[in-house]
Amino acid sequence: MGGTDANAAVNAALPESLDEVRVLIDSIDRQILDLLSQRARLAEQVAFIKERDPAHEPGQSFYRPEREAQVLSRIRELNPGPLDDDTVAWLFREIMSACLAHERPLSIATLGPSGTFSELAAVAAFGHGGRLQFEPGIPEVFRAVAAGSVDYGVVPLENSTEGSVSLTLDSLAGSDLLLCGEVALRIDQQLMAHPDAGSTPRVIVSHAQSLAQCREWLDAHFPGIERMAVASNSAAAQQAASDPEVFAIGPAFAAERHGLVVRAANIQDNVQNTTRFAVLGREPVAVSGNDKTALLLSVTNEPGALTRLLLPLSEAGIDVLRIESRPARDRVWDYVFFIDIAGHRDDPAVAAALEQLRPHCGQLRVLGSYPVPVISQPGGE
């Protein structure tokens, strides 16, 4: 039976009275609840089996990013509709997040205080079952993960309008932490103010990236008004909440959280403004089947050095997804390269290509291999 005929047959079997539909919905809800309870009990059994496994170290995270990616990919393939694939995958991520929290809640460090885009990204990556720990800056997130006071961290990595977040790249270069995942979040910027504020502020405050993403709009609507960068969008919202002469830029939920009024919505210069956030961890992620690998490379400053660096990847047929240079901290006019490639470091072709790269590098570090994101994330309004 074709898809249209099958849907017609199902619809024909549905009750037509409102009372009958509600009875059927109540029955399905009970079935869903029973199945969720069964799944949670199986999650308890997973925890019990892992705790008895001699290879499982005490305190080691039960979270398996590669397993989650495989489950969500399969759910998308099995989805019969009418809900779209991203919605169904999001629902199942929340189910897995709740079941994992029932085993042992994950703790995640991210940029705070509450009300930042980083908070939205952390929830998008781990679901609402994770316990967030807010840090005042990106280096503090790195330190919290490295010290073991949290399981994972979430930090901004790259914006489609303003480019890479230099502080994150520099922190990665100086850290032994690994990239375990990523989240791409559409960034919708709101201009917000105290309810009693006038029409013109004394100063407009926000995170430096947010101010840069709204530069043209601010030039057109508030020329000559001072702009001040602060540690986070939420910190900006707090300032606006305490001073009617201060306007802030940030996500809509920061306005709600701090009792502000949105004066202008979606003021970012690029309507497709998107930020990629990195998930930081201490343990490597296993192969999922659809992965990417982040590398940190350094080469001597001589003609053809970068070409020699990329040649083994090209000959192995490995896609280079992104390449960016940063000044080396310890050598003037020397550079390190951050390169993303398709595949996992344990894939034979990738492993062989990396071995061919080593003789041409002053430094070669695998910053992490992790699953390609399965869900297209909603906007961060």
From TrEMBL:
Keywords: Amino-acid biosynthesis, Aromatic amino acid biosynthesis, Cytoplasm, Isomerase, Lyase, Multifunctional enzyme, Phenylalanine biosynthesis. This is Bifunctional chorismate mutase/prephenate dehydratase. Catalyzes the Claisen rearrangement of chorismate to prephenate and the decarboxylation/dehydration of prephenate to phenylpyruvate. It is found in: Cytoplasm. GO terms for biological process: chorismate metabolic process; L-phenylalanine biosynthetic process. Pathway: Metabolic intermediate biosynthesis; prephenate biosynthesis; prephenate from chorismate: step 1/1; Amino-acid biosynthesis; L-phenylalanine biosynthesis; phenylpyruvate from prephenate: step 1/1. GO terms for cellular component: cytoplasm. Its main location: cytoplasm. CDD domains: ACT_CM-PDT (cd04905), PBP2_PDT_1 (cd13630). The keyword Electron transport does not apply.
